[in-house]
Amino acid sequence: MLLVRENASLERGxxxxxxxxxxxxxxxxxxxxGRAHTLLSGDFFDVVRTEDSSVHAMVxxxxxxxxxxxxxxxxxxxxxxTAVLCGRTQLDQMRMLxxxxxxxxxxDDTYATVVSLVFPPGGRSVRVVSAGxxxxxxxxxxxxxxxEPRAGIPLGLFPGRADWAGTEMELLPHDxxxxxxxxxxxxxxxxxxxxxEEGLLRxxxxxxxxxAQEFVDALVAGVASLAAPHGGLTDDIAVLHxxxxxxxxxxHPWT
Length: 255
Known about the structure:
Blueprint (H helix, E strand, L loop, with lengths): L1 H13 L10 E8 L10 E7 L5 E8 L4 H19 L4 H15 L7 E8 L5 E7 L4 E5 L2 E5 L3 E2 L13 E5 L5 E5 L15 H11 L5 H16 L9 E8 L11
């Protein structure tokens, strides 16, 4: 029992702690390991605000499920935060993470998908670099859409042959981006069907009136409810809801 408590304490110390100082930006999250009796998984995320007031965020997913994958996820998250605070560019961050993954993985077949975002001050745009990671949700007013940015090769799949590139995406005031790992939409929604991106989008649209943390909680609860009759959720889940908060509310339809 003492060993269990010590392990839980260690895992809590390694969990994600977004580094956001100052007002004007909201980061809401949910983290749910698929393995029983554990707090960490191969999914990982982080948020950091730098001295120029930009907000940097990332979500990643190490292939496989187990303690080794969880440990590798911690390595990658901490390396990413260090790279951000040292001023490395998004592409340099990806190169460094791939090198660390290649050196630290126990199995040559292990890889990771990662998406990195930078929100410059002002809230008018976001820069996205994806290494094989799934798309994300964009919330605008009470509408939600699925966004699929250009995605390069996952980290470690073909080391040294990266084809990552940045995508600049325009934002309107009060737009929010919801990053996630595939555990959120790979679960069952029927006896022989998975939820999928379209099913997740329909569920998200029904939650679109909710504030950030309530939206995330309702989305995860909805996915879990659909999967419950079919064995429940077995994959890891990480969700990160991000957005600037201008002082005056505004409603903007899609253009």
